[in-house]
Design a protein that fits this description.
- This protein is α/β, with parallel strands linked by helices.
- It is globular.
- The structure holds thiamine diphosphate and magnesium ion.
- Thiamine diphosphate is lined by residues 423-426, 449-452, 475-478, 503, 506-509, 579.
């Protein structure tokens, strides 16, 4: 039996019939399709989506975004909330519509979060080349702007003939649902091929379930890992995003309780263990807590679980200073399990933790850290809690400090509410100060740290978990880059709480704040250090259709948060802060090179400090 459909119609029908299943829970793999139409996709994928909605022959709901990069972010936000078991497709027109998605693709792939990208491409027949927006290359005709997706996709194909579609689709779904390989998957669709009809085997469209595995550790690898862990006197766990994606939080808690080992977290792993669990020691690395960083410095064994050891996590490879340090890396990706010459334990985080707990607690010879280690964690945690309390309640004047804004939000939010952030000075402050209990509460995109992710990613997170309140924290810089999805939230009736933190530029960046302030250019100095600009981001948010509440004090902020939560409309709470307000120290470092030679004394001094810090950098061999 065959059925005659265009390539785009076949694609839509196929995507609507894909499911994932893990632990017996089944859900749609492709929840819907984001898009922005242009001549490259309107007649192909656009027609197929329209036909699907009008005839009901395929169930793939269409969502209109305002920027193609943002629709990829929304898909990533959705997939992250769904622990990578469900995502969206994104259709874009040829040329700029498609290349706008490249940044989103990089973000998805770096964070290892699935998203299906459908950039449109130039005519496969080349009948009228060069088309509007077509890249010409005198060396070859076999290239288009969509080749730019190759390095940022985990699977990439261009469908030049209808016959290529079925195998490309199967390969694409496999990569999307493989927890070790997942990321952006790109199928470039020439605009003529999208509209071309073909006789497809009926079997292409039958419902298909992609079973997401929980690979068990290989016995000999488990034995080696257990041997290293048993030798540890000063061990430390690093819980990364893989713990949360694997829903391994309870297994991690049992492991920690059985062994007493301190558990630190990364940006993607925060909330895996509740912040007030006795074994929790906070964030590790450049923006971590001094509690975790003190343990890290002396650790003789680091058990990294579901982490890719980014420079923030390792403090640019200065975090761990014990000369006898050994890594044990429990990771579903062999690539990550092999890092830092570690003992690799390639497995699902939950399955691996269960196996480790069992192997380490064999009665009679159960492993446990010594009481002195536990006492040190307890007392360091007690001290650190006071530092955080102080940062949450500084009484900073005349504007509240950013740490107080985060504190007010943390104290206001319910356990299941979600905070979304990505770039600027807030991810660091959040990683250090945020107290998370629920594994889905802390949603900071810090693989790509992409300005503009916040509102779009928050939109996706809310779509994935409509029963949770989503609080998007966005700086003025990020807001100016990508605020437009507020319009999408309003039009779709997807309720967001947005806290817009205005500090007149980049609180996070800069050598003497050079070129980071949103100011008039001062004619006398020639620099951007003139008066504050007549920019009103609160009015801007209102103009996009959001309800807006302007606040000046923490008290007003708290009242506004309550009002925003009570509302069913997307609400922007606006607050101004001082970028120079103090933040506690992580007692750690991040490698950002300082000029080796300089005419400025300040730079020369900074270079000296830089070289001193660099001497702590290790190879971990
Ligand atoms: C798309 C993108 N461009 C540039 C950067 C580099 N960058 C990181 S933070 C930042 C400034 C962010 O400003 P804002 O959102 O106001 O946050 P703040 O630093 O003031 O907290 C810049 C330019 C980035 N991360 N992403
Ligand atoms: Mg700012």
């Amino acid at each position: 039996m065959s059925v005659r459909l265009t390539v785009a119609q076949a694609l839509v029908r196929f995507l609507a019939a894909q499911y994932t299943e893990r632990d017996g829970v089944r859900q749609r793999l492709i929840e819907g399709c984001w898009g922005i139409f242009g001549h490259g996709n309107v007649a192909g994928v656009g027609q197929a989506l329209l036909q699907a909605e009008q005839t009901g022959e395929a169930d793939l709901k269409y969502y209109l975004a305002r920027n193609e990069q943002a629709m990829v972010h929304a898909s990533v936000g959705f997939a992250r909330m769904r622990n990578r078991l469900s995502t969206f497709a994104c259709t874009a027109s040829i040329g700029p519509g498609s290349t706008n998605m490249v940044t989103g693709a990089a973000l998805a792939t770096i964070n290892r979060v699935p998203v299906l990208l459908l950039p449109s491409d130039f005519f496969a027949t080349r009948a009228a080349s060069p088309l509007l927006q077509e890249l010409e290359d005198p060396r070859t005709c076999d290239v288009s702007v969509n080749d730019a997706f190759k390095p940022v996709s985990r699977f990439w194909d261009r469908i030049n003939r209808p016959e290529q579609l079925p195998s490309a689709l199967l390969a694409a779904m496999r990569v999307l649902t493989d927890p070790a390989e997942t990321g952006a998957v790109t199928l470039a669709l020439p605009q003529d091929v999208q509209a071309e009809a073909h006789d497809w085997p009926e079997a292409l469209f039958t419902e298909r379930t992609w079973f997401v595995p929980r690979p068990l550790p290989e016995p000999s690898a488990l034995r080696r890992a257990v041997e290293v862990l048993r030798s540890a006197r000063r061990p430390l766990v690093i819980a990364g995003g893989g713990v949360i994606y694997s829903e391994a939080g309870p297994a991690l808690r049992r492991f920690a309780e059985a062994t007493g080992i301190g558990v630190s977290d990364t940006q993607a792993g925060k909330g895996a263990l509740a912040w007030d669990h006795p074994c929790a020691v906070g964030g590790v690395g450049a923006t971590g807590s001094p509690v975790a960083n003190a343990l890290a410095r002396e650790a003789d064994v680091v058990l990294g679980i579901g982490t890719r050891y980014s420079d923030f996590t390792t403090a640019s490879r200065t975090a761990f200073q014990n000369p006898d340090l050994k890594f044990v890396n429990l990771n579903i990706a062999a690539f990550d399990a092999g890092k830092h010459a570690g003992t690799g334990l390639v497995a699902d985080a939950r399955a691996g933790l269960e196996a480790l707990t069992e192997a380490l607690s064999i009665s009679g010879a159960g492993y446990h850290v010594d009481p002195e280690y536990t006492a040190r964690i307890d007392s360091a945690n007690a001290d650190w809690r006071q530092v955080v309390e102080h940062a949450y309640h500084l009484g900073y004047q005349p504007m509240p400090a950013q740490t107080e804004i985060l504190g007010a939000l943390n104290e206001f939010m319910d356990e299941r509410d979600v905070v979304v952030q990505a770039a600027g000075s807030m991810p660091g402050d959040l990683q250090m100060l945020w107290r998370a209990r629920d594994p889905k509460q802390y949603h900071v995109e810090y693989g790509y740290s992409c300005m503009g992710y916040e509102i779009a990613g928050g939109l996706g997170a809310k779509m994935a978990a409509p029963d949770r309140e989503v609080f998007v924290l966005v700086g003025d810089g990020s807001y100016l880059m990508m605020a437009q999805e507020i319009v999408t939230a309003v039009s779709e009736g997807i309720k967001l709480n947005v806290v817009l933190v205005q500090n007149q530029g980049f609180g996070s960046i800069g050598s003497q704040r050079f070129g980071t302030r949103y100011r008039y250019r001062d004619p006398s100095s020639g620099l951007l250090d003139g008066d504050v600009l007549p920019v009103d981001l609160a009015a801007n948010a209102a103009s996009l259709g959001a309800d807006v509440i302007r606040t000046r004090t923490l008290k007003e902020l708290q009242a506004a948060l309550a009002q925003s939560r009570a509302s069913d409309r997307t609400t922007v709470v606006y607050i101004e802060t001082d970028p120079l307000a103090p933040v506690p120290s992580s007692e750690s470092w991040w490698d950002v090179p300082v000029s080796q030679t300089s005419a400025l004394t300040s730079t020369q001094q900074a270079r000296e400090a830089y070289e001193a810090a660099q001497r702590d950098q290790r190879m971990y061999l």
